[in-house]
Design a protein that fits this description.
Number of strands: 11
Helix content: 10-25%
Order of helices and strands: EEEEEHEHEEEEE
Largest sheet: 7 strands, antiparallel
Distance between the termini: 19 Å
Strand content: over 45%
Length: about 160
């Protein structure tokens, strides 16, 4: 089943961190709530809990290299994990906006729900914006794809 691809960022300063997430979804319009799941021991979970928020960056088709970078478990921790890339202004509650993204959701963490070996993170949306129109990055069958034309998927990268 195809899913959209996002990079969730949390923390601030020397503790900033990001990870690729394809379990992102909207939960409610009133109040505006979103969710994603992470491994119970994921670094980003602790940062979201500590700082009280996160930013979800929705990736465009040409951002597959960015998705791979933040999916790498051996990437550096802190600002070194963002080396060589421009980042937007930090959220006061943790996380960064990544330029080039299709959209972002800036959220306060609202709830953590333990489910098996994962945690569902529920966020209350403080701000969201569509930043540009372009085909989204999609993950399907272990591969990044795009939906360049309706009804058609293409391999990326």
């Amino acid at each position: 089943m195809p899913t959209g691809v996002t990079v969730v960022t949390g923390g601030r300063g020397e503790e900033v961190h990001g990870m690729t997430v394809n379990s992102f979804g909207t939960l409610s319009l009133a109040p505006p709530l979103v969710s994603f799941s992470v491994g119970a021991g994921a670094r980003i979970r602790a940062l979201i809990e500590r700082y009280g928020g996160f930013v979800v960056n929705v990736l465009a088709a040409e951002q597959d290299a960015l998705a791979r970078k933040f999916a790498d478990p051996d990437r550096p921790v802190g600002p070194a994990g963002f080396a060589g890339m421009e980042t937007g202004r930090p959220s006061p509650h943790g996380g960064l906006r990544l330029p080039g993204s299709l959209a972002h959701f800036t959220c306060d963490s609202a709830r953590f729900i333990a489910v098996g070996d994962h945690v569902i993170v529920v966020g209350s949306v403080r701000e969201c914006a569509t930043l540009r129109q372009a085909p989204p990055l999609v993950f399907e069958g272990g591969t990044f794809r795009t939906t360049g034309e309706p009804g058609r998927t293409e391999g990326v990268g």
